[in-house]
Amino acid sequence: MPYNFSIQKNVDLTRFNTMGVQARASFFVEAGSVQDLTQAVEFARKSNLRWMVLGGGSNVLFRSDFDGLIIQNALMGKEISEQGDNIQIKVSGGENWHALVLHCVENGWGGIENLSLIPGSVGAAPIQNIGAYGVELQDVFAELEALTIETGEVQVFSKEQCRFGYRDSIFKKGLKGKVIITSVTLALSKSSQVNTSYKALSDHLTRANIAQPSIKDVSDAVIEIRQSKLPDPKEIGNTGSFFKNPVISVYHFDQLKSEYSELPGYPVSERQVKVPAGWLIEKAGWKGKREGDAGVHEKQALVLVNYGKATGEEIWNLATQIQRSVKKQFDIDLTPEVNIIG
């Protein structure tokens, strides 16, 4: 049957991943509608091709060429409904996340200003349950729609059905590869209270003499902080935070604290503590280290970077060395936040 899209062959993926690694896809489709997504998957199945959906490419590392079909989620559009001060905004999966945040801030719709400058697409945000500076996506999440691959039907998922966790959701586990997120609906407010609970954010606002910050003040502050710590992917290849912040037992944390008194920790529950992966990596001596064009950023040890021509495999080799080093020194397993495609 004829398709509404063109099927490209042997496509260079360098500009489709923010790490900037060179990899090629056997086939590539830009899907601008739900029908395109359905037909693209159908094409892959009929052709016995491996396939994956790619959003903004900011949370993926290609270790090698992709022998299969890359489907780029290019669904665009927004629908807005207002009820008093409450705003519900339904956003298509292919929209840029940061552009959405700025749009909401400009309109005075509060709730996601702390999530400014996070790279990637709207459709990828729930998969990761993105979060920063005291706020997570789940805090403002209403529902999402996703194409079910097996049936070809679009299904609505509530917050409970998404099973959000720390940088986690059902879409990374039981439903991985089984659905494609087509839209996300957020519940925002014209009268929301800003969240400045995160110390780095509150300190930044204090230094700027902003006692009663607006949502724009918070957004601007988050952008400034992120830009001061994280490299711009347009200038140096990276995927932002490469590893998750590990959660360990209170007993384990107390043991480490007796040896490393300066070790930061953030209680998750009565029994668990979250520790910063960046601190562990820096303490293990990796900050600013470089092997060829693969390296650890000089200002933020949590960020692995491509200085030019590093391959995905070289960056992954560096990542595994860091994992082994942190495991040996702290007995903590670091888990990639990035989706590794090998």
Structure explained in plain terms:
By secondary structure, the protein is α+β, with helices and mostly antiparallel strands. The protein has 3 domains: 8-73, Uridine Diphospho-n-acetylenolpyruvylglucosamine Reductase, domain 2 (2-Layer Sandwich), CATH 3.30.43.10; 78-228, 2-Layer Sandwich (Uridine Diphospho-n-acetylenolpyruvylglucosamine Reductase, domain 3), CATH 3.30.465; 232-341, Uridine Diphospho-n-acetylenolpyruvylglucosamine Reductase, domain 1 (Alpha-Beta Complex), CATH 3.90.78.10. Helix content is 27%, strand content 28%. The protein has 9 helices and 20 strands. The chain has helices at 34-46, 97-106, 125-128, 159-162, 199-207, 215-229, 250-259, 277-283, 312-330; strands at residues 8-12, 24-31, 50-54, 60-62, 66-73, 78-83, 86-92, 131-132, 135-136, 141-148, 154-158, 179-189, 237-241, 247-249, 266-267, 272-274, 290-291, 294-296, 303-306, 339-341. The strands form 6 sheets. Strands 6-7-12-10-11 form a 5-stranded antiparallel beta sheet. The longest helix has 19 residues, at 312-330. It is globular. The model has no long low-confidence stretch (mean pLDDT 94).
Structure summary:
This protein is α+β, with helices and mostly antiparallel strands and 342 residues long. It has helices at residues 34-46, 97-106, 125-128, 159-162, 199-207, 215-229, 250-259, 277-283, 312-330; strands at 8-12, 24-31, 50-54, 60-62, 66-73, 78-83, 86-92, 131-132, 135-136, 141-148, 154-158, 179-189, 237-241, 247-249, 266-267, 272-274, 290-291, 294-296, 303-306, 339-341.
